[in-house]
Please model this.
Amino acid sequence: MKILILGHLCLDTFTNRGEPSPGETDEGIRWGGIFFSLATMANLAEEAKIFPIFGVGTRENERFLKRIERYQNVDPSGIYRLPGPTNHVYLEYRQGEKRIECSKSIAPPIPLHRIEPYLPADAILVNMISGFDLTLETLSTLRMLSQTNQTLIHLDIHSLTLGIDEQFRRFHRPLETWRRWCYLADTVQMNEEEAKALPLEYLQEEDLAKQILSLGLRGLLITRGTRGVTAWGQEHKRISRKDITAVMVEHPSDSTGCGDVFAAAFCYHFAQSQNVTAAAESANRIAAANVAYVGSDGIDTIAETVRQVGETK
Model:
C-alpha cells in the first residue's frame, strides 16, 4: 500500500499564564502538526510505503529528517526545505480542554509539482493543519489525477475553519467554499466546533451530515474529544449514524494532536477495510492512546499502547 501524507509541519510550544497547563513542567519545542499523522501512520502501517510531502524550515530541516530516520516505511524524498522558518504554534490551555492557539510563520501551500511525482497512490491523507496547506485548486487536480486509480482521499477539515487575527491568534469562522472542499474527498473529518463553524448558515449536525454525504462522499467523522466520535456513512444512498464511545485513559495528560492521530489511523484502516464504522472505531482507540503524553513526546509508543488495550490490526 502506498500512502501520501500532505499537511504543514509545526513546532509546538506549550505556554501557561496563570493556570495549570500540560506543558508547564516540560518546556521546550516539540514536533507538531502533520508530524502526529506521519508518526502515527509510520507506527501502524508497517507494511505500507509512506510518502510525506511538505516543507520544513531551513533551521529545522536536518534535525527533522534525522528524527524520522527510525521509520523504515517512510520515504522522506518528498520533504523539501523552506527558505523561511517552520510554522511555530503556541498553545495556551485554559479550563480543561479549552485552548488558545497562536500560529506564526505559516508556510506557503504545498505546490502541485511537489506531489505529482508520487502519484498514483492507494490513499492520500490531506490534513489541513494550518488551513493553508493546500489550495482548493491543487486538491481538485489531485482528485482528477487520482480518479483512474480509485485513490482514497481523506480530508481533515481542521484549520480550514480558522482565521488569524493581528496577534496571530486563531479563531473559528465560516468557510464559504466548504461544499467544494468536501466534494473533492471520499471521507471527511472535523470536530464539533469545526462542524458548527463550517457552513455560512447554521445547520443542525444531522443536516450538515446529509448535505456532505449528498455530495457523494462515503463517510463523515465528527470527533467529540472525551465523548468519542460520530461516524456517518453512506451506502447505496442510505445514510447511517454510529456514535462511538470514547476510550478512557487512566492518566490523561494532553489532547494535542489527537485529531491528527485519528486522521492517520482512520485513513489507514479505511483504506484496508472500506468500512467507515470499523475504521472509526479503530481510530478512536488509537487517538485515545495519544492523550497519555504531552505533545508528541510518546508518539512512537502508540502502537504498543493500543495493543495493551486490546487493539488488533
About this structure: The first strand starts at residue 2 and ends at 6. The domain at 2-300 is CATH 3.40.1190.20 (UDP-N-acetylmuramoyl-L-alanine:D-glutamate ligase).
